[in-house]
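TA notes, week 10

Several of you asked for a full example with nothing omitted. So below is the full record: structure tokens for the whole chain, then the designed sequence directly under it. When grading your own attempts, check the secondary structure regions first.
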């Protein structure tokens, strides 16, 4: 009888603990949502959240209420091919010369030196190491894009892929300094911002979801600063 009572008491304790944890999560989510709404209202932005279910984050979308349009989306992961990201996108500024990918980290720091006598052709371990490092640096979809672009000379601490010679109006030193001023939240390559310019516009990506209002505001400000540096 005492054993049964102990089991009942243990189950009751576990249930109460689970309820307390769930209540705490709801309170934390509500506080975070309130902070995001307050930040958006202060900056003149509009915030929407869709697809939220119990225990699963939805897609957060932030847009300005006036001025030049842009959109910030924080998306949860969608399988191994598409992990969680924070994306800023705008149709301005554009880069008419083609596509450019600039990331605030060095690719060569992620690639091991090839073994002696290895032949750097497709399918060799050296080639595979380079492809893996590119995925580690940029994520799968942007790695596929960068793989089609020549790697360019770049300032210390950044990596650049671009079609053809870089335009003179694009000051890589200024862009590199702005990107490197970002204080990472996530560790490793996932924490560094990735800038993509193309004839369709500008994108700034973090390969993790930004959840806090102060960090989200800082990320948008970084994107706006980069847009000003790039110019029309």
């Amino acid at each position: 009888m005492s054993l049964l009572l102990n089991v009942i008491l243990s189950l009751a304790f576990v249930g109460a603990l689970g309820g307390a944890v769930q209540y705490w999560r709801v309170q934390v989510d509500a506080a975070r949502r309130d902070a995001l709404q307050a930040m958006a209202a202060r900056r003149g932005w509009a915030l929407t959240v869709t697809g939220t279910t119990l225990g699963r984050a939805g897609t957060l979308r932030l847009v300005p209420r006036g001025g030049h349009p842009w959109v910030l989306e924080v998306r949860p992961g969608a399988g191994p091919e598409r992990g969680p990201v924070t994306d800023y996108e705008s149709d301005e500024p554009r880069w008419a010369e083609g596509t450019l990918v600039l990331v605030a980290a060095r690719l060569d720091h992620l690639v091991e030196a090839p073994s002696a006598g290895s032949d750097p052709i497709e399918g060799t371990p050296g080639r595979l190491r380079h492809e893996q490092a590119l995925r580690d640096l940029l994520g799968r979809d942007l790695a596929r894009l960068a793989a089609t672009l020549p790697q360019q000379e770049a300032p210390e601490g950044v990596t650049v892929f671009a079609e053809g010679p870089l335009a003179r109006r694009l000051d890589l030193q200024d862009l590199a300094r702005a990107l490197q001023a970002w204080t990472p939240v996530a560790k490793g390559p996932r924490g560094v911002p990735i800038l993509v310019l193309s004839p369709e516009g500008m994108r700034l990506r973090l390969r993790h979801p930004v959840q806090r209002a102060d960090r989200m505001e800082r990320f948008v400000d970084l994107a706006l600063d980069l847009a000003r540096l790039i110019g029309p």
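Residues 45-115+122-230 form one domain. Use that as a sanity check on your answer.
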